[in-house]
Prior knowledge:
This protein is an alpha/beta fold.
Amino acid sequence: MRNAIGLMSGTSLDGVDVAWLRTDGEQIESFGPTGYRPYSAAERDVLRAALDAAPRIVRREERPAGVAAAEDLVTRVHAEAVESYLAANRIDRRTVDVVGFHGQTVLHRPHDRLTVQIGDGATLAKALKLPVVYDLRAADVAAGGQGAPLVPVYHRALARLADCAMPACIVNIGGVANVTYIDDDTLIACDTGPGNALLDDYLLRHTSEAMDRDGQIAAQGEPDSDWIAQALEHPFFDAPAPKSLDRNDFASFAVDGLSLEDGAATLTAFTAASIARIVDELPNQPASWIVTGGGANNPTLMRMLSEQLAPISVITGHDLGWQNDAVEAQAFAYLAVRSLKGLPLTYPGTTGVSAPLTGGVLVRP
Ligand SMILES: Nc1ncnc2c1ncn2[C@@H]1O[C@H](COP(=O)(O)OP(=O)(O)OP(=O)(O)O)[C@@H](O)[C@H]1O
Ligand SMILES: CC(=O)N[C@H]1[C@@H]2OC[C@@H](O2)[C@@H](O)[C@@H]1O[C@H](C)C(=O)O
């Protein structure tokens, strides 16, 4: 068994999640405390500038102006996040075997064999004086896989531990949404469409907050069903799994003609409808749907998703006692241990890679 810290800075650009896992890369023995280091508004601006600059990248080592500055920031903020986490929880760093470092995705174009996560693993390892496993998507994309989602193998470990009724579907609603279908040894996964990012960006343009807190604004509006039907015509939704998305693949989908409330309701319903679209792709009807990630904290989104997936019950990871906002960070702790042991991170059913494949780069301080 190893003690691993996992770090995730997701497509929502909200902050860095920190989690602790004791695992041998197969079973989960125990969970530890979680932590969160939000980005300031100024830091988010630096990340958004990097997302704007990143489409100029042709080779994954390139760092155009804007991306280089963001990479320094991402590395520094992750080091800070771990230092405050260790201090707040009185954890002696000598008890940590490995840190799993996702970094920040700034560009994801698997068809061009290109996925770019910024954050310097060697600098982080040196700053923390700990071994770091990073660059966990690269090997899969180089081998022709989608490079995402990576959490399915961890979702399977979680579902087994919780003794979930099978088949189980675990949905992560971050900036982008992704789903894992688990039925004993069958593992099928893909991104489903937008998660919170479209809604967050819309709210940021029209209000003082970059989210529809507790789904309050969408709850006062009416979804525009014609808009949603048209949005679902996008070829992504008809493509078979495995498939993955760049955060900004739907950025041009504007609801600006609608009232703020109707716009928020429409984008929320679009996320719910696009997740539900995946049911037709699954070999069997799931016995349970479990929602993780920040979207599980949005009651309006949860209501719309329950309506779409009825009569199957939709619960959140909170309902199962999971540390729901930290599941992805836990996944990167788990994946780091699997990487150390050379175990597969991705499978034909999760990323389309031709055979189970390990990944990640280990750097010692
Ligand atoms: N109380 C809440 N009400 C509404 N939305 C919320 C609430 N809490 C979190 N969220 C949403 O969740 C988002 C953060 O989700 P999460 O941390 O899972 O994203 P992420 O780490 O970027 O994930 P991913 O890598 O999967 O994109 C916020 O940007 C917001 O949209
Ligand atoms: C390229 C990239 O960073 N993708 C993220 C994003 O955020 C959610 C969804 O799109 C998922 O595919 C992935 O993150 C999770 C952690 C994953 O790889 O499973």
